[in-house]
Design a protein that fits this description.
The chain has one domain. It contains 4 helices and no strands. With 105 residues, it is mainly alpha-helical. The chain is elongated and about 55 Å long.
Length: 105
């Protein structure tokens, strides 16, 4: 049986995992792609990378012990990321994209 502080540290670590999943999602989908094949490929790549990140982090956090608060924390971390940091990260990606497209010309 885990103590309260161990469960709290697991919860906070899973919040970070949720934010990382949101970061991966925004990185792959910050630009709308018109072709369906590229969009499907990007979705597959981001899903695979997110799954690898979640599984490896769960291994290091609590050796794959999945409790109900693990899923709750990952969803809450994703939600917090999307409602707070996502806008700033997307603006950084847009400015980097402008700089890179400016240097190509």
């Amino acid at each position: 049986m885990q103590g309260v502080f161990d469960q709290l540290s697991d919860f906070l670590s899973c919040l970070i995992i949720g934010a990382v999943v949101g970061l991966i999602y925004d990185t792959f989908f910050f630009k709308k792609i018109l072709k369906r094949r590229k969009r499907d490929l990007l979705f597959f790549m981001s899903s695979t990378l997110s799954t690898i990140a979640v599984i490896s982090c769960l291994y290091f956090i609590n050796y794959y012990t999945i409790r109900w608060y693990t899923f709750l924390a990952i969803v809450c971390g994703f939600w917090l990321y999307k409602n707070s940091i996502s806008f700033f990260y997307k603006s950084i990606l847009r400015s980097v994209n402008k700089v890179l497209s400016f240097t190509k010309k």
